[in-house]
Amino acid sequence: MANRKELNPESSPQAAYGALLRSSREQKGWKQDDLAERMEYSSTHISAVETGRKMPTFRFSRSADQALGTGDLFERKFREITHGALLEGFSEYVGYEARAVELRLYEIGIVPGLLQTREYAQVLADSAVQRGSITAEQAAERVSYLMQRQEALERSRPPLVLVVMDESCIRRPVGGAKVMDAQLEGLVEFARRPNTILQVAPFDIGERRPFDLPVNLLTLPDRTMVSYAESQAQGHVDRETASVLPMLTAYHQLQAESLSQAASVAMIEQLRRGTP
Predict the structure, then answer these.
(1) Could you tell me the pTM of the whole model?
(2) CA distance linking residue 60 with residue 41, whole number of Å
C-alpha cells in the first residue's frame, strides 16, 4: 500500500470518476488485476483511470458497470465528465443514437459528426477553443466523445445510416488541403458500406430544400421515432409522433430532390481531383 496514490475526487469530474471506480472495486474486495480481467482491460489501464491519468471512455464505462453490477452508474458519470463540452440535451440523444436501428441525418455547412475523421473533428474543436467558446480540455473531450459515438455504431448488427449533406458540407474547406482530402476520402469509404446511403443536396435545388437547419431522426428497435434539433444554446429530443412524422415526410422529400449516391460520390471525387 506504500505506493497507493491518494485521490481528491473534488479536484475534477475525471478524478471523481477514478475515486468512484477505486471505491467500487475495493467494496468487492478486488485488486486491479481482478477488475481488469472482468472488464477485459489491462490492470495498467484500470490504474490510469483510477488515478485520473487516463480519460475513461463510453465503452470502458459500460464495461465497468457490467463487471461491478452498478447498473448505468459509470455510464452516467462518463456523461457528466463530457457534459461540459456538449449542449444540454445532447447526452440524452446519444443514448438513443446508440440503440437506434436506423439513423437519418441532414447537415448544413460541416460534415456530420458521425462521418468526421478525427483530424477534421479536431480542427473544428480547436477553432472553438480559439473563439473562446470551450476550453482546450473540453475540446479534447468533444473529439474523444465523437470517436466513441462512431465506435458505438460498429456493432455486430449495425444500424442503417442514411445521410444527406448540403453541398456546402463538402465545399467548405476545413483544416487545409490534407485534412479535407482525407475527409472526402472518408466520405467515399462511408458510401461503400452495405448499411449506409450517402447523398448530397446540391445548391441548385434552391427553395425545394425542406430544411433550413440540421436534422437528426432515429428509429428505435420498437420502431418508434425520435428527432433531435439544436439551437445555439441547447439541444432538444422529441418523441411525439405528431411532430416527428412530418419531419420524416420532409426528409423523404429531401432525398428525392438530392443527388443519387453514385452522383454524390462522383461529385466528391471531382472535388478531390480539384475539378469543378
Answers:
(1) 0.70
(2) 8
Q: Going by C-beta distance under 8 Å and a sequence separation of 6 or more, which residues neighbour residue 189? A: none
Indicate whether 102 and 209 sit together in one domain.
yes
232 is written with which cell numbers? 445555439
Which grid cell is 100? 437506434
Mark whether 163 and 206 lie in a shared domain.
Answer: yes
pLDDT digits (tens, 9 = 90+) for 188-230: 999 999 999 999 999 999 999 999 889 999 999 999 999 998 7
Q: Is 197 among the domain residues?
A: yes
pLDDT number for residue 142: 85
Q: At what angle do helices 32-39 and 58-68 cross, to 10 degrees?
A: 110
What is the rounded distance in angstroms from the CA atom of residue 163 to the CA atom of residue 114? Answer: 10
**Do 22 and 100 share a domain, yes or no?**
no
Q: 3-state class of 30 per DSSP?
A: coil
Look at residues 158, 180, 169 and name the one whose alpha carbon lies nearest to residue 259. Answer: 169
The total of structural domains in the chain comes to: 2
Please name which of 215, 176, 187 lies closest in space to residue 111, comparing C-alpha atoms. 187
Q: How far apart (Å, rounded) are the C-alpha atoms in residues 79 and 77?
A: 5
In this structure, the answer to whether residues 23 and 98 fall within a common structural domain is no
Shared-domain flag, residues 269 and 248: yes
Q: Indicate whether 43 and 100 sit together in one domain.
A: no
